[in-house]
Design brief:
Strand content: under 5%
Order of helices and strands: HHHHHHHEEHHHHHHH
Oligomer: single chain
Structural class: mainly alpha
Shape: globular
Length: 334
Amino acid sequence: MNPAPPGTREPAPATLAHWWGRLRDIQVSGTATVAMLVVVIAVNVALQPNFFDQYALTSNFATFVPLVAIAVGQTIVVLSGGIDLSLGAQVTLASVVTVQLTDGELGNLPLALTAGLGVGVACGLFNGLVVVVARLQPIVATFATSFVFSGLALVVLPRPGGTMPSEFTSGYRDSVLGVPVALLAILAIAAGWLLLRRHRVTRHIYAVGGNAEAAFASLVPVARTRITAYVIAGMFASVSAFAILANTGAGDPFIGNELTLTSVAAVVIGGTALRGGRGGAIGSILGAIILALVSNIVFFADVPSTYRQLANGLVVILALALAGIPALQKRRSA
């Protein structure tokens, strides 16, 4: 290799920021997402012969909803050019507030659900203000606020407990005309995204995530749009909390710990670029279902419980790596 001409600098080695920029540019194709879904369904059928039985479908969809809801919320923040590492803590806080106010009484449920939704909105607003007004990096700001929300959850409910009305939990695990209620909930979340996708706010979110400077020049309210993205994400975190309570019937101040990073993985697998402005929540819903089915595979493969979290993590890393190969090859050939 010839030395660099006098007066010039050698090219700097690739930095962590450089590789993070490359990762943010990766956008998984819809074909890759669907292919992964087909593969994990096939493996689940092989390991669980009754996979398509009514009871199994109802149980599976009941576990899908929390991750689906939080993945949609994460998608909206990512599309705006940010990221929210506190969503799992928001789920926890909303769930413990709801279960404490419900106290097992059906009559308390409307007020409790309203309060739980308010918690998500308040957390999202707080995050948006910290990121936009204080001008902190989203990944740092929301990582810090996750400790705040987790601490508040422990204040509200120091240890697992509380009960939800049996009508609430049994209704969630029921079926309507043979269709699981949980599947209807997923379809409702998808329909909600499609309606939101047509709204001006979402168009602004795409514009800000794609190019904030150009959006500002086009009179898009950049600051308000970013705050709104976090607020909407907080609302979906509350929906995730309600689904967890409906499935478990009790509160847990640690229930959302694993949801945050899994939601980010679902967003990437679903085809949304972490840089923002490209992608959508339908892919994230599929990504969330893929990850939930991966957990099923680990369980039905009789992996010892002490290794399940490790196995889940390795499978997610493998899925992200395989999904990112075509995008990297495309960038290299460009």
